[in-house]
Design brief:
This protein has six helices and seven strands; from the N terminus they run H-H-E-H-E-H-E-E-H-E-H-E-E. By secondary structure, it is α/β, with parallel strands linked by helices. The chain starts with 13 loop residues before the first helix and ends with a strand. GO terms for molecular function: methyltransferase activity.
Amino acid sequence: MTTKPHDISPDTTPGEFWDNFYSAEDRVWSGRPNAALVREVTGLTPGHALDLGCGEGADAIWLAQRGWRVTAVDVSQVALDRGAGHAASEGVGDRIEWQPHDLSVSFPAGTFDLVSTYFLHSWLELPRERILRSAAGAVAPGGVLLITGHAGFPSWVTDPDPDIHFPTPEEVLAGLELANGEWDVLVSEAHEEKTTDPEGKPSTRTDNTVKVRRR
């Protein structure tokens, strides 16, 4: 999220918006897994993972390559189809189930050993805290919830939108409303990540990560 698009119709559904977003290019993201996923999941015993907002599937594919069974969820069917194609080409298509969900309306059934979501931000209205509470509710005993989000605008943005608020790790934890005595907080921190500006020059952006384990 940087500059807000000016051509969003009030009648546009989340599925339409994100299908258009992904259809604009043959590949939107790098195809590499998120750095926080690699950092925080390496060493966990593989089980069943839920990837919320999976996009083109890089995280789901990385997990599947390391022995996880993955339910990958996105509101964009274009992104899901693209992810399924990438997974098949990587030989892990049979380890990933791709499910379309508008998370403000529906949520995948079941419980999971890992529930992860990265950059669950949208220019459209999104009940982020409610969705993240649903994510916590889907974590099996002994399982992990991993949330990474933007903590601010990239360094190259000189005129940030004052109406956009990026929650701190503390705000994310508070919004989860975790029951006392049932969870352990493993990580709650902000961290700087490398990125590039629109001209391809090196830049940075601060993100935050919250990682909790259900007892």
